[in-house]
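Hey,
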Amino acid sequence: MTPDYGKTFKHWRAGASETPDAPWHQYTRHAFVEGLRDGSLPHASFLQYLVQDYVFLVHFARAWSLGVVKSETLEEMTVCANTVDGLVNHEMALHVKTCAAVGISEDTLFNATEAPENIAYTRYVMDAGLQGDFLDLMAALAPCVMGYGEIGLRLKAEAAPNTPYTDWIDTYSGAEYQGICTTVGGMLDAAVARRLGSLDASPRANALQARFTLATQLEVGFWGMGLRGA
């Protein structure tokens, strides 16, 4: 079941699901994700992912900060600012806590060398925002936000009772994170209506879909990078 994060996300998700390679399915059903679900993911892979994801979140927070600059309404500014707060003060805390338990300090996380897949993804998102407008940036950001929400909900329902990744699953299936997805989705719908009227009738529809789909493909590569940690 697809979670209801708004009609724009639904439209873009469908667009990234109907191509021959179906990147949305590859992303949300990746072997890394299934390893989280059944507990078979090697711990070394999970740690590799957490270290790189911490670095990713640093850049992701900067991209959402750019969203404040690109905003045209107070609602857009508020959602972007609150998302930065959630990333910096809450989501990254999970990474710090988990890594500290195995002797990896926050300073080590912040100064970790970025994997090529991390560089490709984060710089693509930043370029979308610097080169384009607010909608270009949101199309590049949305797969991560909503994808993790969708993955979290499914894994909460399907995860093995003894999976060691319960904290991760609880974070992204929990009410706080799901509320972020719903809020961002509503803001996105309003932003599209304000700028384009109808997404279906806009000459920009294909370009925005392409941004969303490419960001989804980069998420697939990010999971693959994590698996190599084993």
